[in-house]
Design brief:
The complex is a heterodimer of chains A (about 100) and B (about 475). Chain A is mainly alpha-helical and about 100 residues long. Helix content of chain A is about 70%, strand content about 0%. Chain A is flat and about 60 Å long. By secondary structure, chain B is α/β, with parallel strands linked by helices. In chain B, about 60% of the residues lie in helices and about 10% in strands. In chain B, the strands form 2 sheets. Chain B has a 6-stranded parallel β-sheet with strand order 5-4-3-6-7-8. The N and C termini of chain B lie far apart (about 70 Å). Classes of the chains: A mainly alpha (about 100), B alpha/beta (about 475).
Chain lengths: ~100, ~475
């Protein structure tokens, strides 16, 4: 019997939770704020769904309801992606070691 | 681009996201980690375009909407002051939540675009996945908006509690499950809208009873929710990058919530059920006899500091409010010239979000190897000459160690009272967030500096 692709994704999901668990515990507490802003940025990879939704219809009715939600979601995720990565970068640039 | 090839690329971007988080294990590797994250995002977006392969006028619209978001995002990232980071993160969470809701809606309205079947006959598994994505996304959105309003001070930080609150929440949660069940059998779009509406309501009700100083837990929790929402959508779209990211972000937020709860010695449910501090407040007002304390001025503080050989600085939310971090660094620079050893002690829940104080100190050019966590530095207080408590309160209260009756009993606290002398900068003697008196104020070796944190620090600089 063939295995449902859902099971593969579920396996990836469960394993990723464990990866996330160990990776996040090793994050130093002083970088917890950048951790939150960067997780914000990466969870906005939801933009791929938004792009698919936006381009789902042909040109004549590009702004029908389902694409419109896609376009709005593109803008929201783009704010997050750019805002998240850039503000993380700005924060990380401030962390300096003692000058010897 | 074939579906298999794009799936492999999505996997690569998922791995790059793991490396982005891995980089944060030390400040040296963190910048590289962030770079990996950006590469992962670029791969995911480019692969999506290539796999659609439809380069019509629609693509231009996509780029226009993307650029609008990019411009707004970049503008915010460069303009935002570091003290406003908690609000910013809450705001970003709300956007992830709303984006998840929008994607779920368009998948529901136009399932053919995502290969999920036709309207009215959407695959059962997909329908459940998108319902979860939409519901969690909506909860994240409205919850984050409330958190944002509370952090901004637009909404009062005090908990809003009414009778039957928990009952109502439980009722709404059950109704979501029932709705999802009927949605799967009837597939009516009205049910889907109601489902989203109720989820918005739950997010709102869930956050209003939680007080201002519990915000570190709330923000971490919403971080976690935004991850689970993304994962739900990832399952719907059968997209590996989203599934991996959702799991990473979900567990990241959950761990942060756990760390924050532990820092307050409270259970997660205790925080979520809310209303902390409301009952204790009235108790304090009843026995309002003024105990004697020693009050000092900047001159006394400067004298004590100049004669010390080691000083530990304990920053808290008050430092952020007063924007005192730069003045503090200036003061430390002068002290360092006199060969005084300076270190900073950070309590896990100091500030309004995890790591809040560390970012502010980094902004003021404090080297990160002078900043220590509670476990690393707590034994050093006994050997330090002066503790300079600036804007922190409850996290220094020795009552947490001595009085089992106290609401904060058992909470890990900084052993500030073990220092030879304690300088406590505070605007008034009012109790802190937990609504309890701080015994530290009345200790023999404590000198209260009743003033604004920034102003006091600047006055000390003048006297040094």
């Amino acid at each position: 019997m063939e295995i449902d692709p859902f099971i593969f994704r579920l396996s990836i999901f469960i394993l990723s939770i464990f990866v996330g668990y160990y990776v996040v515990w090793s994050v130093t507490p002083s970088l917890h704020t950048p951790l939150m802003s960067v997780t914000n940025a990466i969870s906005s990879v939801i933009i791929v769904g938004a792009i698919i939704a936006a381009l789902a219809n042909n040109i004549e009715n590009i702004f029908n309801s389902s694409s419109l939600y896609g376009f709005l979601a593109i803008t929201l995720s783009a704010i997050n992606i750019f805002g998240g990565f850039l503000v993380t970068q700005r924060m990380l640039a401030m962390y300096k070691k003692r000058k010897k | 681009m074939s579906a298999n090839l794009s799936a492999l690329f999505y996997l690569i971007s998922g791995v790059l996201f793991i490396l982005a988080l891995r980089g944060l294990s030390s400040p040296e590797t963190s910048r590289q980690g962030n770079f990996f994250g950006i590469i992962g995002m670029i791969i995911a977006i480019v692969v999506t375009f290539l796999s659609i392969g439809n380069f019509s006028i629609g693509l231009i619209y996509v780029l226009v909407f993307l650029s609008i978001g990019a411009f707004i995002g970049a503008l915010i990232a460069y303009k935002i002051p570091m003290t406003a980071m908690p609000e910013l993160v809450a705001g970003f969470h709300s956007l992830v939540g709303l984006a998840a809701v929008f994607v779920a809606i368009s998948a529901f309205v136009n399932p053919e675009a995502f290969n999920l079947g036709v309207p009215g006959k959407i695959k059962l598994a997909s329908l459940i996945e998108m319902s979860i994505g939409a519901a969690v996304g909506a909860i994240t959105f409205s919850g984050s908006v409330i958190a944002f309003l509370k952090l901004q001070g637009i909404m009062s930080g005090s908990p809003i509690i009414f009778k039957g609150q928990h009952f109502l929440n439980a009722l709404l949660l059950i109704s979501i499950m029932i709705l999802t069940y009927f949605l799967c059998s009837i597939q009516s779009s009205n049910l889907f809208w109601i489902l989203i509406g109720i989820s918005f309501l739950i997010g709102f009700l869930l956050i209003i009873p939680i007080g201002g100083a519990d915000m570190p837990v709330v923000i971490s929790m919403l971080n976690s929710y935004s991850g689970w929402a993304a994962a739900g959508i990832g399952f719907t779209l059968e997209n590996t990058a989203l599934v991996i990211t959702g799991a990473l972000v979900g567990s990241s937020g959950a761990i942060l919530s756990y760390i924050m709860c532990k820092g307050m010695n409270r259970s997660f449910f205790n925080v979520i059920l809310g209303g902390f501090g409301a009952t204790e407040q009235s108790l304090i007002n009843q026995n309002k006899e003024q105990k004697p304390f020693k009050s000092g001025n900047a001159e006394d503080a400067a004298f004590l500091m100049k004669n010390a050989s080691s000083i530990i600085i304990v920053p808290g939310y008050g430092m952020a409010v007063a924007q005192a971090q730069h003045a503090l660094r200036e003061m430390v620079d002068i002290l360092k010239k006199n060969d005084i050893k300076i270190s900073y002690a950070i309590h896990p829940v100091a500030g309004r979000m995890p790591g809040h104080m560390n970012v502010l100190l980094a902004e003021a050019n404090v080297p990160y190897d002078e900043v220590f966590e509670l476990e690393q530095i707590n034994n050093d207080f006994a050997n330090a000459d002066v503790a300079y408590v600036i804007g922190a309160n409850d996290v220094t209260n020795p009552v947490a160690k001595t009085d089992p009756q106290s609401p904060i009993y058992g909470m890990p606290v900084l052993d500030v009272e073990k220092c030879k002398s304690v300088l406590f900068v505070k605007r008034s003697l009012a109790p802190g967030y937990a609504g309890i008196d701080n015994d530290l104020f009345y200790k023999e070796n404590t000198l209260m500096l009743l003033a604004d944190a920034k102003k006091m620090t600047e006055d000390i600089i003048k006297n040094l």
